[in-house]
């Protein structure tokens, strides 16, 4: 028999557990299930095991709105975040609704039945469920493998090559010369985490990234917690951090010269005299064209200052038996090379979507409010902010889905489908972001539109107004009773 649930959630990571909490709290009598391809809760925070894995956002905004973050560190390590997610699931009984090892292959919608039929694979056997509403919390990157460029001569390297997405539990780098290729958040995390045990860590980057030092602990949040209690202090701190992040982002976009100067001066204060900041820490792009890398308590600067780590900027010509050779002709010796060269994007978890027998071509669809697809009924997905914490948007998407389902219940609707019939709305990339991992694959994703409600907003305050309080029946969302 094919099992039926009212709401089927795909993905048991940060977004999926949050979505389940919202659905369960709002509709205690509704049935739901979570299909998780892997064998564990946590998504990103269970998958990545490399040294120093941590948040690159503060946990007062990366945490759930409904569950205060109470650990001391606001820039938290991966294991603490994973514990937070697991505790959230366990305390609400959400973990009992998760089907592990269920990889969704295809989801087919039938208008005649107002029903999704979802086909998954479990232990090599097909599993089928039906659902009235499909909620995709799969993230947007490929869990099976990260991105590694085709480096010439890599096969002749006599050392060990590791990608952070598949970190060996038994990798011993104590006293070894380590090269980390890359300059993004993963590289900026790995360098100081490995530097205290390795003989030396060299970050080899093709081009620099903006790095900003932030306190690992939010002293104001800790004081507020004593005065106001966990829940009220969390709410105040959350809005304080949202406001500061938004102001900094807006300043970066409108007065990039000021922000570049601030970042440069802050870095110089923490680096050793004579450090070539123009070569190694002065990007060619503007702040927030790509995401800023966070260094809690300036850890990467401290490692450089102590002589435990260094940065080399240049293009890699080839691997050698003992390390790397750059286009400049200089060489970097290594026992271990870590290819922190980015993610591979994957839309909707790689599943096939079908509506009434027709394949959904994602690049031909347009994202409604950044969380539903034009022409695809009863389906929502979560894509977080690129300029702020992922969970800020994930929580708002869940709140909107709850409002949408309540509106359908109140009016006897069984279908909702975003419909773009305005020929003046022009297409834009879903993510207006210049990071390499985005540029490589954004053509495989749905499009964004030139104006609301087809724009993927990057302003939390704006989205609070529109998603939490805006009209559900706005003309672009069409409903049907039969």
Describe this structure in words.
The protein is α/β, with parallel strands linked by helices. It has two domains: 3-143 and 344-480, FAD/NAD(P)-binding domain, CATH 3.50.50; 160-339, FAD/NAD(P)-binding domain, CATH 3.50.50.60. The chain has helices at 14-26, 44-47, 59-62, 78-91, 185-195, 219-228, 230-254, 256-270, 277-280, 299-305, 390-411, 436-441, 460-469, and strands at 3-10, 32-36, 98-100, 103-110, 115-122, 125-136, 160-162, 177-181, 200-205, 211-214, 293-296, 309-313, 316-320, 323-326, 331-333, 336-339, 352-355, 358-359, 367-368, 372-373, 379-381, 415-418, 427-429, 447-449, 477-480. The strands form seven sheets. Strands 1, 2, 3, 4, 5, 6, 17, 18 and 21 form a nine-stranded mixed beta sheet that branches. The protein has a five-stranded parallel beta sheet with strand order 7-16-8-9-12. It has a three-stranded antiparallel beta sheet with strand order 13-14-15, with no helix packed on it. α1 runs parallel beside α11 (390-411). The longest helix is centred in the middle third of the chain and has 25 residues, at 230-254. The model has no long low-confidence stretch (mean pLDDT 95).
């Amino acid at each position: 028999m094919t099992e039926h649930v009212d709401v089927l959630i795909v993905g048991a990571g940060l977004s999926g557990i949050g979505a389940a909490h919202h659905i369960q709290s709002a509709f205690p009598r509704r049935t739901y299930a979570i299909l998780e391809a892997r064998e564990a809760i946590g998504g990103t925070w269970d998958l990545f095991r490399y040294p120093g894995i941590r948040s690159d956002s503060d946990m007062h905004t990366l945490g759930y709105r409904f569950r205060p973050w109470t650990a001391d560190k606001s820039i938290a390590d991966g294991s603490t975040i994973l514990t937070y997610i697991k505790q959230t699931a366990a305390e609400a009984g959400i973990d009992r609704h998760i089907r592990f090892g269920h990889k969704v292959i295809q989801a087919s919608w039938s208008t005649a039945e107002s029903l999704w039929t979802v086909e998954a694979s479990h232990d090599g056997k097909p599993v089928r469920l039906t659902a009235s509403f499909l909620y995709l919390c799969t993230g947007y990157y490929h869990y099976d493998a990260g991105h590694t460029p085709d480096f010439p001569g890599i096969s002749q390297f006599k050392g060990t090559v590791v990608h952070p997405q598949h970190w060996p539990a038994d990798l011993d780098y104590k006293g070894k010369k380590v090269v980390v290729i890359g300059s993004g958040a993963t590289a900026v995390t790995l360098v100081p985490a490995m530097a205290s045990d390795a003989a030396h860590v060299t970050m080899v980057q093709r081009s620099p990234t903006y790095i900003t030092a932030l306190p690992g602990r939010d002293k104001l949040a800790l004081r507020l917690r004593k005065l106001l209690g966990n829940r009220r202090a969390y709410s105040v701190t959350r809005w304080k951090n949202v406001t500061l992040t938004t102001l900094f982002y807006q300043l970066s976009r409108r007065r990039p010269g000021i922000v570049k100067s601030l970042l440069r001066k802050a870095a110089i204060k923490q680096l050793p005299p004579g450090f070539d900041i123009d070569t190694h820490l002065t990007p060619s792009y503007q702040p927030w064209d790509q995401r800023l890398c966070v260094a809690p308590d300036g850890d990467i600067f401290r490692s450089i200052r102590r002589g435990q780590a260094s940065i080399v900027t240049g293009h890699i010509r080839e691997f050698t038996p003992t390390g790397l050779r750059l286009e400049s002709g200089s060489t970097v010796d290594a026992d271990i090379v870590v290819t922190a060269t980015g993610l591979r994007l994957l839309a909707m978890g790689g599943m096939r979507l079908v509506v009434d027998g027709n394949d959904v071509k994602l690049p031909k669809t347009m994202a409604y409010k950044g969380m539903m697809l034009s022409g695809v009924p009863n389906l929502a997905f979560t894509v977080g902010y690129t300029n702020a914490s992922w969970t800020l948007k994930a929580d708002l998407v869940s709140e909107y889905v709850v409002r949408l389902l309540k509106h359908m219940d109140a009016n006897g609707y069984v279908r909702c489908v975003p419909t773009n019939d305005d020929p003046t709305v022009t297409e834009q990339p879903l993510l207006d972001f210049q990071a390499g991992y985005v540029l490589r694959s954004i053509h495989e994703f749905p499009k964004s539109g030139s104006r609301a409600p087809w724009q993927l907003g990057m302003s939390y305050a704006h989205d609070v107004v529109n998603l939490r309080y805006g009209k559900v029946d706005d003309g672009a969302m069409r409903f049907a009773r039969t």
